[in-house]
């Protein structure tokens, strides 16, 4: 059974049409139960494992770290094609990027953020919602599954600076 105690500092109820949505909390809690407890979330599973588990369809994780990224060649065209095809795209931030490190355990307030980290949380997963062009440059628009602290647009040419891997999965049969 899944109890009603939720992990503090993870998902928060989302406001939608004037109501609070709790489904992100319920999914997170059920997932924690499946992997062996709240303390197991984010330990040993990458976002492609989570996507495969939740959708029932194989997801792929591609390293963006040097030198492994040379073989993957994950380009802007490939990312745009995956978005166009309705695939789930998740970017995993690096540890030590200097971004938000989560929330203070005492006050639940956000910890300080350097300006160059674009509002990213280190060691966290974000889903790509779209790309947009600004002054001839492509930016990634990301969503935070926590429902708060949404990052700024991330320049696509900085993807390997902030992210360690990209996971791509299907939501439906092609």
Describe this structure as you would to a colleague:
- The chain is globular, with a radius of gyration of 16 Å.
- The longest helix has 13 residues, at 23-35.
- The protein has helices at residues 23-35, 47-55, 69-72, 76-84, 159-162, and strands at 14-16, 19-21, 60-63, 88-93, 125-134, 137-143, 154-155, 163-169.
- It is built from 5 helices and 8 strands.
- Strand 5 (125-134) and strand 6 (137-143) form a beta hairpin.
- The termini are far apart.
- The model is unreliable at 103-109 (pLDDT under 50).
- With 174 residues, the chain is an alpha+beta fold.
- The strands form 2 sheets. A 6-stranded antiparallel beta sheet has the order 3-8-4-5-6-7, with helices on both faces. Strands 1-2 form a two-stranded antiparallel sheet.
Low-confidence stretches: 103-109
Strand order of the largest sheet: 3-8-4-5-6-7
State the secondary-structure class. Answer: alpha+beta
Tally of DSSP β-strands = 8
Main sheet overview: 6 strands, antiparallel
Number of helices: 5
Radius of gyration: 16 Å
Q: Average pLDDT value?
A: 74
Helix content: 10-25%
* End-to-end separation: 34 Å
Task: Categorize the overall geometry.
Answer: globular
